[in-house]
Amino acid sequence: MHAAKGDLDGRTAIVTGAARGQGRAVARALARRGAVVWLADLCAPSDTAPYPLSTGDDLTETARLIDAEGGRCHTAVVDVRGSAAVTAFADSVAGQSGRIDILVTCAGIVGFAPVTELTDAMWSDMLATNLSGTFHCLRAVLPHMTGGWGRIVAISSMSGRQGTPNLAHYSASKWGVIGLVKSVALEYAETGITANVVCPTNVDTPMLHNPALYSLFAPDLDNPTREEVEPRYARMSPMRIPWCPPEAVADAVDHLVGESGRYVTGSVIDVGLGGAARMP
Question: What is the C-alpha R_g of the chain?
Fold first, then answer.
């Protein structure tokens, strides 16, 4: 089902993690449909993620792309780990827009280590960003979803549907997102607000394409390249596709945020390249 251009005219959307990758793809898709999109991102380095996070220039580029396509957007630097900062941001958006209609939480990090080598800082930062960050956003935005209409989509992961060696803290955070959103879906089921989850597999973004993640899946190679890891990623997928484009995640979000998602809440959509077929 293809989203109709203009069907979100007059809607206000917040996308976290919007500076690049999945967040950028989602933000552009919503803007093409007419929503005014508030682009939020940390735009700062991480002490625990083993790869560079997005920058202010990345966030500016997302806004430029939306502007070039005729869309409307605003940018904000927001650390989703901070409850007060997230609430202040949501209140500001609602104060300027009158309400908030759509929330898509893409902000997240990944890291890896065996359980016995996970430090307290690695564990805490992962949960603070991926799980508590999602909670902060939901709690801050829900009071501003009025008028019997609202759409919440949280980005989890296929690692939130199964155990993943050396990614225990990441899997735990993403499993938690699913439980959180399903609970919200039930709490708001009679209000016209829907809450759903999208679980991507490997996605063609900087979170996947970096030396640290390559070494996790190709520990026998010195400084593995994209070309060298591609067949290994492909073998992990029943479809034999190594990774999907970020636009595939945006397509799933597109389905959930408009009228096509009216009757869908508390659900998990897997963008898994066939991986979900292996799950109970």
Answer: 18
Mutual orientation of helices 133-141 and 168-187 as an angle, nearest 10°? 20
Tell me the whole-structure pTM to 2 decimals.
Answer: 0.96
Measured between alpha carbons, how far is 21 from 4 in angstroms, rounded to an integer?
23
| Tens-digit pLDDT profile for residues 207-236 | 999 999 898 888 999 999 999 999 999 999
238 close to 275: Cβ distance less than 8 angstroms:
yes
The catalytic residue among 51, 170, 188, 214 is 170
SS3 104: strand
pLDDT tens column, 36-56: 999 999 999 999 999 999 999
- The position carrying tokens 């605003």 is 74
Structural domains of the chain ordered from first start: 12-203+245-272 (3.40.50.720), 209-242 (no CATH)
CB 196 within 8 Å of CB 237: no
Q: Give dist(CA 110, CA 209) in Å, integer.
A: 12
Tokens of 255: 């389905």
Q: Identify whether 170 is a catalytic site residue.
A: yes
Cβ–Cβ contacts within 10 Å for residue 98, how many?
Answer: 13
β partners of residue 195: 152
| Residues with Cβ within 8 Å of residue 109, at least 6 apart in sequence | 46, 48, 49, 53, 125, 126, 129, 130, 207
Contacts of 160 (CB under 8 A, 6+ apart): 171, 173, 174, 175, 176, 177, 178, 197, 199
Model confidence pLDDT, tens digit, residues 3-41: 667 899 999 999 999 999 999 999 999 999 999 999 999
| 252 close to 198: Cβ distance less than 8 angstroms | yes
Residue 233, both tokens? 């990623």
